[in-house]
Amino acid sequence: xxxxxxxxxxxxxxxxxxxxxxxxxxxxxxxxxxxxxxxxxxxxxxxxxxxxxxxxxxxxxxxxxxxxxxxxxxxxxxxxxxxxxxxxxxxxxxxxxxxxxxxxxxxxxxxxxxxxxxxxxxxxxxxxxxxxxxxxxxxxxxxxxxxxxxxxxxxxxxxxxxxxxxxxxxxxxxxxxxxxxxxxxxxxxxxxxxxxxxxxxxxxxxxxxxxxxxxxxxxxxxxxxxxxxxxxxxxxxxxxxxxxxxxxxxxxxxxxxxx
Amino acid sequence: xxxxxxxxxxxxxxxxxxxxxxxxxxxxxxxxxxxxxxxxxxxxxxxxxxxxxxxxxxxxxxxxxxxxxxxxxxxxxxxxxxxxxxxxxxxxxxxxxxxxxxxxxxxxxxxxxxxxxxxxxxxxxxxxxxxxxxxxxxxxxxxxxxxxxxxxxxxxxxxxxxxxxxxxxxxxxxxxxxxxxxxxxxxxxxxxxxxxxxxxxxxxxxxxxxxxxxxxxxxxxxxxxxxxxxxxxxxxxxxxxxxxxxxxxxxxxxxxxxxxxxxxxxxxxxxxxxxxxxxxxxxxxxxxxxxxxxxxxxxxxxxxxxxxxxxxxxxxxxxxxxx
Lengths: 259, 323
Ligand SMILES: Cc1cc2nc3c(=O)[nH]c(=O)nc-3n(C[C@H](O)[C@H](O)[C@H](O)COP(=O)(O)OP(=O)(O)OC[C@H]3O[C@@H](n4cnc5c(N)ncnc54)[C@H](O)[C@@H]3O)c2cc1C
Description:
Oligomer: heterodimer
Largest interface: A-B, 82 and 100 residues
Helix content of chain B: 25-40%
Bound molecules: flavin-adenine dinucleotide
CATH class of the largest domain in chain B: Alpha Beta
CATH architecture of the largest domain in chain A: 3-Layer(aba) Sandwich
Largest sheet of chain B: 7 strands, parallel
Distance between the termini of chain B: 48 Å
Radius of gyration of chain A: 22 Å
């Protein structure tokens, strides 16, 4: 069985975005970069499937500059992926979801994968589209926001989170699954495994290598702006908690008009 | 003259509120720009949706009635909506950012090869469309312009205000043309979680508990206040990772993003990853015994105190107000 994991490097969740005024770009030069936390569930799930037995080969696939290699090595190869394909091409700087999905689909088409796993969204763009777009481009079924995955013979059963419950979805393989927290607990790489991961195959390709014109964006960025400013906090003080609670309830009702 | 199509999502006959919010906003845009508002409704039976859609601003309601639309299926819904866009050519198709909407919106865009923008909180049209949405879980916002049309926009629940007017839309049948579509993934069954509770991402009020609640047995305090307010109950990741509540309650950068009218954070310090998921809430209340907790920096109202005293007292007071 061949499994592909689509992984993205994103700014660490601690990242503060300092944008005093609207600007056409975010200055991301100082950001610490890590594996997208949702992609870690995808990596872990692939490794768990491999550990459960059988012939399984896991390929991590990502798009990004040279600097993604460290993340791929540490968070994909060192925790159990067998090899990696990295698309590095300056023409893809600022690529939108549709463009990214086209490139990933082109990489995936080079092999025949039985299962494609990815995170439900990346925590930078937060758009949650790429996995589903890739599946659509490849004509594959997908299940999104998956919290439990069971593989059968040529098929899968997945639990997908919905409002107030879950859907249990059956799909034929090959299929694409987008992973949600709850699916598993991603392991951390050990130092010896990080050392050994350096020996695993890591292929770097460009769009030209894939026989692909860099795809055009369908969405243009106009401006980035800071979130709307918030006012001062009004502290409700009273001798007794009950009195403070009463005053707070009154303010929420009469002043803020939210209850 | 922008024509705006709005997808009316319903589950078991109940229409998602975000559909009415989108129709109301589409009406405001169409009134300003001179276009029409269309509702596209996929369901096994029409019910009273057309009348309600009309009252929320739809000029035309397209009913695609088919037994296939009983249980959600990405391929069938995606095909139907893509066919609708091909045939009717709206400028834009609005889809609520619900579990179903987030799944189907990229599917439709993939089929049409068109732009898709997720989780919009603002939409303007002045010849070109501009769509505003949060990125980095709300640490900043971006304004985007799609190239070409029709394009698909996912709309964040509670971003737009519902407005009802007298009036009814013209009702038309729409043939979804699903012959020959054979989905390779199907929903075998739907399992309800703890039923009757308000869904976090759609809630108008959210009460969340953090590590300050000290143990799983005390989450009840949060749930009681939530219940009294008709609110959804959320949690910080600390509470989820400790196994005190299910991850479906987690609010934050790696949990749910919420934007209710009122967010009450109890015993939550206000880590950047938590703020990321709730900072767009209209009114934020913090209850924390540490006056220096960062949560107070974004709160509108706060009580510095012990949540074990304040939360039950607040529940009582809200109960009295609500009668
Ligand atoms: C990659 C990544 C992703 C993350 N994603 C998320 C996310 O999505 N959501 C999220 O929430 N976090 C997330 N976190 C974790 C985040 O960094 C914080 O650790 C977490 O939010 C802390 O939760 P807390 O505020 O409940 O706990 P703490 O930070 O421990 O705060 C507890 C608060 O309770 C107060 N308190 C204690 N006792 C009482 C009392 N009796 N009465 C009143 N107040 C009391 C304390 O003063 C303190 O302020 C993420 C972290 C990482 C690294």
